[in-house]
Amino acid sequence: MPPGSPCPARDVQGAADFMQIRDHKDFALGSACLAIGAVFALTATSYNLGTASKMGPGYFPFVLGTLLAIAGAVIAVRSAAGGKALRRLERVDLKAGLLVLGSICLFAVLFDDIGLVLAIVGAVLLSSRAAPDYSLKQALAAGLVLCVLCVVIFAWALGLQMPIWPSF
């Protein structure tokens, strides 16, 4: 090797460029999916997995958790790919996250008492407040469409026994 030429083994800059996270949003998403998938897959192993032809209660959660973890790992690794524009993780909107989480809790608490339709409308109205371009008309339209779909699919097509309207 001629004097003054860089040694490939000591070329740390190339390794640093390869491992630099370029897309922080994708890295955060991939890491979250990897963690959630791993927890689900590991928890599912406490149940009987069975076989592909005779699945046990842990088989489906194990497969889904594993697929989610693999997808998360791929997304996280690709966030360091060269050639991607640098994209930083923006500030997390805590209010929006709490509104969405609160709407899920509201649905769960109200479902048995006021029925499917009103619980969906309440959850959609609350969660839609998280959008920066909130519109009451759009929220009501989305709630109506979701109510119709849920009643048709769950109550009529699948025949699930659930309260559709409040029972006074």
Automatic annotation (TrEMBL):
Entry's transmembrane regions: 27-47, 59-77, 98-127, 139-160
Any one Pfam family match given in the protein's UniProt record, by short name: TctB
Residue ranges of domain DUF1468 in the record: 29-163
InterPro entries xrefs: DUF1468
Domain of life: Bacteria
Keyword vocabulary terms for this entry: Membrane, Transmembrane, Transmembrane helix
Protein name: Tripartite tricarboxylate transporter TctB family protein
